[in-house]
Amino acid sequence: MERFLSTWVASSVALAFAAWLLGDHMDIGEPSETMTNRVLAVLLVGLFFTVVSMFVAPVVKLLSLPFIILSLGLALLVINALMLLLVEAISDGFGVHFVLDGFWWAVLASVVISIAQAVVRAFLPEGD
Question: Per the database entry, which stretches of residues form a coiled coil (predicted)?
Answer without folding.
Answer: none
